[in-house]
Design a protein that fits this description.
- By secondary structure, the chain is of the alpha+beta class.
- It has two domains: about 55 residues; about 55 residues, no CATH class.
- The chain has a two-stranded antiparallel sheet with strand order 1-4. A two-stranded antiparallel sheet has the order 2-3.
- The longest helix is centred in the first third of the chain and has 26 residues.
- It starts with 7 loop residues before the first helix and ends with a strand.
- This is Isopenicillin N synthase-like Fe(2+) 2OG dioxygenase domain-containing protein.
- GO terms for molecular function: metal ion binding; oxidoreductase activity.
- It comes from Owenia fusiformis (Polychaete worm).
- Belongs to the iron/ascorbate-dependent oxidoreductase family.
């Protein structure tokens, strides 16, 4: 994509690398919390080797004030993030909801500078 957005790769790697390091630490802490060897999950998440990691950049545009949402229509329906952890970076607009263990959807209110970690 650098030919369309100059510097895209470099800027992307500047965020991806620290995220992968955080993800790696979370895997390690999880293993230790379970009293398992610290590298238990690492073999499934090695950067540069075949693994199941993915990075996506999503931007959901704001809905205009005069926009009509018809019955049964959703912008992004309920879904499950798959994998070990999801690291979510939100802006101050909000709108993200998470499902509690009781099955209730609650707002995931954005906190400045915070990363929402979902297991």
């Amino acid at each position: 994509p650098d030919e369309y957005v100059p510097g895209f790769k470099e800027k992307s790697l500047n965020i991806i690398k620290p995220c992968m390091e955080l993800h790696s630490r979370l895997l390690e802490i999880t293993a230790l919390g379970l009293r398992w060897p610290r590298d238990t999950f690492q073999k499934y998440h090695n950067i540069g080797k075949p693994n199941h990691n993915s990075v996506r950049t999503l931007h959901y545009y704001p809905v205009p004030e005069n926009f009509t949402l018809f019955p049964g229509q959703t912008r992004c329906g309920k879904h499950t993030d798959f994998g070990s952890f999801s690291l979510l970076f939100q802006d101050d607009v909000g709108g993200l909801e998470v499902k509690t263990v009781d099955g209730e959807f609650v707002a995931a209110t954005p906190l400045p500078g915070a990363i929402l970690v979902i297991e």
